Each structure stands twice: as structure tokens, then as C-alpha cells.
Amino acid sequence: MVSDVDDKALATTGWVMRPATVQQRMSEIAQYKAVMMEGEDFGTIPGTQKPTLYQPGADTLCQAADLATGKPEFIEKVEDWTTPFFYYLVSLAVMNADGRVLAVGVGSCNSKESKYASRWVPFFTLDEEDKARSKAEAWKTETRTSKKGKDYLAVFAPSSDIYDQVNTLQKMAVKRAYISAVLRATGATRVFTQDIEDMSNVVDGEVREVQQPAPRSAPDQKAAGNGDPNKARHDLKTTLDAKYPDEQERWQWMEQNAPTGTRGTNVAIGDMSDAEVDEALAALGNAD
Fold first, then answer.
1. What confidence score (pLDDT) does residue 272 get?
2. Is the peptide bond before 229 cis (omega within 30 degrees of 0)?
3. Using 50, 70 and 90 to split pLDDT, how confident is the model at 152?
4. In the prediction, which pLDDT does 93 show?
5. Which residue has the higher pLDDT, 175 or 17?
6. In the list 54, 159, 185, 272, which could disulfide-bond 102, CB 3.0-4.6 Å?
7. Rounded distance, CA 203 to CA 143, Å?
8. What pLDDT does residue 223 have?
9. In whole angstroms, what is the distance from residue 154 CA to residue 140 CA?
């Protein structure tokens, strides 16, 4: 979740835009939003008024504004390997081309969040012990329908891989701090929000530390040319849907073949790191 740290810690550090500059920045953000891909750069959560910014969209805004990020700082952390319970609170600064800090974002993540503590899985994938446990403990269930129209039972099962999620929890805390900082530094909070707590399909992507500001590029250049990470995400989604149109088959493939950092989670392709997308595409290309 996004931490409830005092807003003073998140505010811009004394740098004030002139009204004309603010208007220009809002116009630029609107232009970039127009060429962003919904579901990959941002998504809409039912019941919210603004679209939620994903990491690829934050990368686009960061590049457009010629911003760079500092090194993530772990403010607090709890690592209880016995319970088990893991918690991380991270701060991350965003600077302009001159190295001036424009905003500091703060984000946290812990292993008791529902997306890590439990997950929806097809009932038939459980072993006999967990099937019996699900009935004895009355785990939440619901009937879902695959794209082929076949109904199947899904169960909200406790996660069995908490220890394997430590690195993922750290990455998510950093990513949340990063998105928060970019939103504040660019003024994009007027256009996007960061309602992480309601995002059931968030994926554990990796945030890349930017050492030097990237050159400004025009909005229409974002999806041009080979090697575009967003095009790769689009290719992964369309290829996966075409090869495995049945939801259960697609879920099973992701469980067995998705990159290590995303296994056991409800994967949202738009929030995967570039390396994870490339790895998944390679695995998909080798699938029977």
C-alpha cells in the first residue's frame, strides 16, 4: 500500500512552477496520456474517478520530463522469518536534469496484503490436503467461467510461497514510492491516481534506477520502432490470448512459465519489468 507518511515529506522541495509552466506541463501530460495504452500504461479501477498510473506509464512521464531517480532508501523494514511476516517502507527521490530534488515518494508493502497472503486459484489445482482444508476452514469460493464458456470453481487460498516473495515485496515497495514521486514531480496527480490498495491485478515489476535523465521525446515516438517495451507487452498479451484462449489454460501457463518474480501472483502484463516481459515472450515462443 501507499504509506500514510506526512505530506510534507512528499511535497516538492521548494521548487515552484509559474502558471504558464503548469499549464504547459498539464498539456504535455494530456498528450502523453492520449498515446499511452490502457491496461499497460494505466488502468481504470471501478469506483474511482481517475485512471491509475502503472509503472510503464510512470516511466513515460519520467522520460518526457527529463527526470532521474535517486537510490531507493529503506526507511523501515520488518523481517520475521518465524511467523512469517515481512514489511518494507521505502522513500525515493526524483530529480530534474540539474540534480535538484523535485519530489520524494514513499511506498510500503507487506506480506499480509491480500494479494500476497492469499490468491484466487482454480480448485482443481489444489492438492488433496488443501482441498480438505478449504472445506474445513470455509475458504472463500466463487464460480468463474472460462472464455470457452466452461464453468469452474475458484478458491481464495492462502499463499504457500511467502518466503519466496521477499524480493517481490521489496520491489513493490520501491515501485510504489517511484510512482508516487513521479506523480508529484510532474503534477500528474490531476490526471492519474495511485490507488494501489484497490488494484487486485497489480504485478510485481522491477523498478529500474535511472542514473541520467533520458532525452525528451515526442509523444508520437513512444510506440515507434522495434524494441519498444510497450510493444513487447502488447505482443505478449495478444500472443498469449491467441495461443491460450481458455482462461484456465492461460492461468496454468503463466503459473508454470512466467518469470520467477511473477509466479504465484495474478499477473498484469502491463506492470511487468522489461526483462520479465522478454523472458515470458521467450518461454511463450518455445511453448508447444
1. 65
2. no
3. confident
4. 96
5. 175
6. 185
7. 24
8. 36
9. 9
Handedness of CA 81, 5, 205, 158 (dihedral sign): positive
Q: What is the mean pLDDT of the chain?
A: 75
Q: Is the pTM of this model over 0.70?
A: no
Distance CA 205, CA 109 (A): 13
Dist. CA 167–CA 161, nearest whole Å: 12
The full length of the chain comes to: 288
**Predicted confidence (pLDDT) at residue 264 exceeds the cutoff of 50:** no
Confidence band for 5, pLDDT divided at 50, 70 and 90 = very low
- Residue 182 contacts residue 58 (beta carbons within 8 Å): yes
Residue 134 exposure: Cα atoms within 13 Å on the Cβ side: 24
Alpha carbons 261 and 26: distance in angstroms, whole number: 35
Signed CA dihedral, 31, 35, 40, 46: sign only: positive
